[in-house]
Amino acid sequence: MHFSVLPPEVNSGLMFAGAGSGPMVAAAEAWNGLASELESAAAGFSSATSELVAQFWQGPAARAMTGAAAIYAAWLNAAAAQAGRTSSQANAVVAVFDVARAATVHPALVAANRSELMSLVLSNVFGQNAPAIAASEANYEQMWAQDVAAMSNYYAGASAAAASLSPFDLTPRGLYINVPYIGGTINLTPGNLGAFNLGLGNIGLLNLGSGNTGSYNLGNGNFGLLNLGSGNGASGRGDAGAQLLARFNLGSGNIGDYNLGSGNYGNTNLGSGNTGNANVGLGNHGHLNLGSGNAGSENFGSGNTGNSNLGSGNTGSANLGLGNTGNTNFGSGNTGSNNVGSGNLGVANLGSGNHGNTNIGFGNKGNNNIGFGLSGNNQIGINFNGLNSGTGNIGLFNSGNDNIGFFNSGDGNWGIANSGQGVGPLSLQFGTSGVWNTGVGNSGFLNTGVANSGSFSTGFFNSGITNTGLFNSGATNTGLFNSGATNTGLFNSGATNTGFFDSGTANFGSFNGGSTNTGDFNSGDINTGYGNSGGVNTGILNAGNLNTGPVSPFDQHVLNSGFSNAADGAFGRGGVNQSGFANQGLNNSGIDSADNITTIIGGQVIQGTIGSSGFENHGNFGSGFLNSGAYSSGFRNTGPTYTGPAHMSGFVNSTGQYISGFFNAGTITEGVVDTFNSGFANLGNQVSGLFNAQNQESGLFH
Prior knowledge:
single chain; 702 residues; alpha/beta; Ferritin; 11-stranded parallel β-sheet; 4-stranded parallel β-sheet; 5 helices; 20% helix; 13% strand
């Protein structure tokens, strides 16, 4: 959503939230420091090379080295100049931001205006406040225009600064050289294909780490350029997947560029476990979010499904508050749009607990009412009969039925300001707009927790469905900050991982940009080990394929790596694309994948597991320990069948599909397969919470 259509509450809130221009000032200083370091490095490198050639090293090799050193020093000087220009433009952005912030209306003034308006409207029984209301609205319009003008100038200035930047020249031209009498390129360590590598087993040039495919990487097992961490990128080697370069990542396990964090799938994220671009936070699925666990874009808050929300747990867009279902609500627990207040079920209400449209007041049931507890349309006054317009209520200002509490427009709620359907006894709701939720600020369906906009989740700020944990925007995760699906762990943007910071799929380990790895920091696929950018290796720091052992950039002409791997059917006893130990099937890593599964692919029979990582798994395309059922992660989960999809994460779950958490079991119903359980020790279908034994429940002990 463009800032010109956002109210001043949002624009002012965004401009005054966060760290301000401080991080950009720090970035400018860092770029300036980098420029100085590069200049010093160029001077020192040239001086050391010249002195070495002048005193001790003579002959053809020395002349070749001198030429390469001159090229590299020139590149360092050019990079230093570029870093200096980047520092200048960062300072320009700081200046533009500071001017825009100074021109933006302070959020406190906006809040004071809205508070004044509400007071005037609520006391405007006979219309005596009409001039003051008009003046307040005019002042609000001026604030809106002032914020839009400030944001427009900010956008123009920042865009101009960004447009003047030019990309770095990543490759020093002519740096590959053949040294006479050596028969290859210069590397300071063995096992590299390329030039000037300081690490081992690299394919590329000037890698400080090992097992990289690419150049200028400081870490290990990267597929790309200039990564400071390890396991970034997806080489597609081992499973013939897409090749996704990663560049300039200050972190590990990323697929994308310029990420300051780990496990991201996208670009320029400040945080971890994000799927999307330019997020500041954790576990988001979308773009430009400031917060965590959002499924959408431009949200300032957490657990939202939608765009441009300022708050948490909203389903919709441009809401300011908690747990709203709808758009442009200012408050919490509303179902509908354009409400100012909380717990409204309808559109354009000013107040709380209204069931209907365009009401001003509290607890009204109908349309166009001004007052308290009124039933009907176009009424003005106060209903002194308990001040409830619904039936069977205990409390005040309830327009729904059978509620205990205040400002409820839904039915069967125990709590305050709920517009959704309540669960009843043992379940409290505050500011919820969803159905059968237990907790605070939930806008989804059958959640237990706080600010969940998804459904069937147990935890806080989940925008995905069937999660057990916090800030998950993906589905069926057990853990925290996962934007992918069916993960057991933290900060995963990929799917079906057991571990942390994985942007690939079906990994048992952490910081993997590749897929189906048992180990850490792999950008290749189907590896059992550490830091491999190649595929199907059993070992560490390999850039080649099918190696058993460490630091090889070469491909081996074998069917499997590792020990005692086998397969039957169309592929013969030798097996295909397996690493690790005692696996049977196709595309497996780890130890002892199951042999009691029969799968037919393209008319060919495969006896064994397909595409799994970990230890003793009896299911295809999964990860973890001792799981049975396809697409599962975690420990000791049991799906309906070995080959059918289970979609389970967590620990010791059984009987059903789409289950996360601990010790949950679905109930088998004829013709019904989907379960959707989360939480702890639940028995039934579509359940969240703890210790429930009935279907479609949230909360505790139902």
